[in-house]
Amino acid sequence: MDPVTRRRFLLASGVAGGAALAAGAAGLSLAELLRSADREPSPTSGGPDKVVLVTLYGGNDGLNTVIPYADPGYAAARPELAYQPEEVLRLDDALGLNPMLPGLRRMWDDKRLAIVLGVGYPRPDRSHFRSMDIWQTASPAEPVTTGWVGRWLDGTNAPLEAAVSFEPVLPPMLVGRSRIGACVSYRGLSLPSWVDADLVTALGRAEPGEPEMQRHAAASYGDLVTMAHVLQETEHPGTTPDATLDAPAAATGTGGGNELTAQLALVTRCIEAGVPTQVYSVSLGGFDTHAEELSGHEFLLKQLDDALTNFVAAMARTPGGQNVTVVVYSEFGRRVRANASDGTDHGTAGPVFVLGPRVVGGLYGEQPSLLDLDDGDLKASTDFRAVFGTVLASVLQADPARYIEGYGGSLLPFISPS
Amino acid sequence: MSDDVALLLRRAGFGPTAAELAAARKAGYTATVSTTLFPPGPDIGASRAPIPQLGRDPFAGLTNPSEAQRATADERRRAQAEQLSRWWLDRMTVADHQAAEKLVFFWHGHWATSITKVKSPQLILAQHRTMRQAGDIGALAHGMVVDPALVHWLDGQLNAKDAPNENLARELFELFLLGIGQYGETDVKEAGRTLTGWWIDLGGERTVFDPRRHDPGTKTVLGVTGRLDAHGLVELLLRHSACPRFIASRLWFRYASSADPIPAEVQERMAAQFPDPRAMLRVLFAEDVFRATAGTMVKQPVEWLVGAMRQLGVQPADAPAETMTQILDGLAGLGQRPFTPPSVGGWPSGAAWLTSAAANVRLTLAAKLARLLDPGRMSPEDVAYLLGIDRWTDRTYAVLREVTNTRLLLTLGLVSPEYLVT
What ranges does the record give for the region Disordered, renumbered to this chain (chain B) (predicted)? Predict the structure, then answer.
């Protein structure tokens, strides 16, 4: 079955979590990806603009990320979960960052962090799986079969390596009608010593007329052998598959892994090598904090802050890094009022972070009111399509209206003209 | 027709041995559907892998544990969790009633609950027993809504009337019983109220209802108003017309095709057999469209491993402990350690299992299995017979013909694209 038909089914059947989608994923090995760098004219020029999309799975609590510490309604709505004004990392006299985000606070000082406030979409859907699908397909009104990056791949006739996911499975965002971003694995990447590479290579050749899944299976052996060679020269950035067992687990699993640092290390490696990829997709899971939220959420935000800080530092050391913009989003925020489990349930609007050398730091959009709520939920003040549209226009030099249905907004000026 | 029988056994169970396949072919497709789903007599094979007695949760009774007590209890939980995973793999391998085992595995992926959050092996085992023993889907749903592991996983034990937690309520609608599009946000909020008041008795491995924390007021869910409680809510969902169709579509997704949607007529015929899951599967297996899905499903790692162990005649309980630990680590590397689903939505499907990194882990795992045998001399044809493969592609056959070492031959057979897809 072709990827488009498959995707349509997944959407129709309501199982289109990112996890279910990988069946259509194009196989591209890290080796092939790194080799594609050879086609770049000059790795020192910095190359084309790039965007790194960081997906936070589970619905990040936006109110405890960018905190309206001065609003008395904030502490009143969530007495056990609220931060004191003196704890937050102040941005201005109304908003402050969570104390676990000192790295982002430094980027703020450097004017390289933009925070888009109150981002959401009309008639919010509170299912993790459906809402993530809405963000990734950029189609709130009705399910569609393609993601917004995938449509850009289609429209630009992009090569396979133009968009790459280092997530555990390929996200719907990267699925186009005729093109699909590559899903590159980052675990266990060297061939066992006892096996003859020629045998595995031979096992990896597709046979004419072979069923699609069998062909995929064969291709995975071909990729393995190519990768084994290249990775002998590459430092292995992986963490152990069991690492999840050691993390505090207050949240229900809803997708994404906990290896954001490892994923960003691979992005770093690719950018340093001058790979012509323009869109990278990485993720962090665990934000579904219905109970005992405070410690679990802090642990996750610290992971995010550490990973982004390291990544930004690495980018500063490489010419290609000057053209990298990072966007951090989640499928929804949490409810304003805490529940009786010291957690929060599925809500609506939340902040989006945009950071990098080309970013014009500051606040964008409007912080939703804590008094004017929609049945207990924040009202979105910025449509997420304006954020992704700006990324398309200002980073990927593409016409947003062409790739985002119903896009009518003017650009948000969070990227300086190149 | 012979290929249909092989497909049936591979999908209904974990992978038939050569002897089972030969006997089933002799009996024919229709008879095999019946004996597979409704086997006569007790499961003799499974009696070699009785459910383990874990004793009490190491944290039960520790109200204010010291650092040392905590470390000891954590270590015991880790060991018991491993014991549990090994036991289940063992049980899947030795059970004669393969369809029953596969169905428990299906329910584990459906009411997906991870020990990484629940922590207590005792609660996870209690949930497993409930899945194993539930008479039908109704009984299972009533068991799950108050199951301590599921309740803990979805934060139900902290759900009190003053501000209900919606985690369990939402997933009952979306993932467990109805599917997206059959309910509204108000239904979820109201359902959260019906589920208030339960706490977990760790030592007793059960949930306990505390009326003081329960919201006894009137709720309106899916247009029905009343003093609903947890079981009342589940009854309402089970009676909803979407529920049988939703379960039918999930069975189709795991047993027939994770790529093509369930045909409407098949869905209706299966739904008519609700709430008996085996009767629903009997309808599915009789359909021509089921047989037409041959060659489209990628084996999940547990299916692949258990099938291989059955066909090679390896019983996990007899394998060296160290090897079994490596095998469990390998399953984690492939992304499917038992009792550890990645998301409340369950395990992925299709090409998600076919990354090059997985190819590598699979090679290593297959070699470990082959090393447990003393296979003597074998030809590629012998390997195909042993693993129940209809025929090798020219590609794989050419590779296997090059190999003289029988263990390597078996290893390559186990990782072959033909063996990974059913």
Answer: 55-77
B374 — phi, psi (to 5°)?
-120, 80
CA distance A29 to A31: 5
Give contacts of B 181-200 with A, CB under 8 A.
Answer: 181, 185, 188, 192
d(CA B411, CA B326): 16
The C-alpha angle with vertex A383 and arms to A377 and A389, in degrees rounded to 5, equals 155
- Beta strands (DSSP E) in A38-156 are 50-56, 66-67, 89-90, 96-97, 113-120
Closest by CA position to B174, among listed A382, A288, A317: A288
Complex ipTM value: 0.92
Sign (positive or negative) of CA dihedral A167, A169, A171, A176: positive
Q: Which two tokens stand for residue A173?
A: 């965002």
Q: Using CA atoms, how far apart are residues A21 and B156, in angstroms rounded to an integer?
A: 30
Nearest-angstrom CA–CA distance, A292 and A288: 11
Q: State the pLDDT confidence band at A11, using cuts at 50, 70 and 90.
A: very low
B166:A290 CB<8 A = yes
Q: What is the mean pLDDT of chain B?
A: 95
CA B12 to chain centre: 12
Q: Per-residue pLDDT tens for B65-117?
A: 999 999 999 999 999 999 999 999 999 999 999 999 999 999 999 999 999 99
Residue-level pLDDT at A36 = 64
CB-based contact, B354 to chain A, within 8 Å: yes
CB proximity under 8 Å: A 12-41 to B: 12-15, 17, 19-25, 27, 29
| B397, B380 Cβ separation under 8 angstroms | yes
**pLDDT of A245 strictly over 60:** no
How close, in Å, is residue A69 to chain B by CA atoms? Answer: 23
> Element (H or E) spanning A362, and its range?
strand A362-364
Min Cα distance A52 → chain B (Å) is 22
Instruction: Kindly state the percentage of chain B with pLDDT values over 90.
Output: 91
Distance from CA of A311 to the nearest CA of B (A): 24
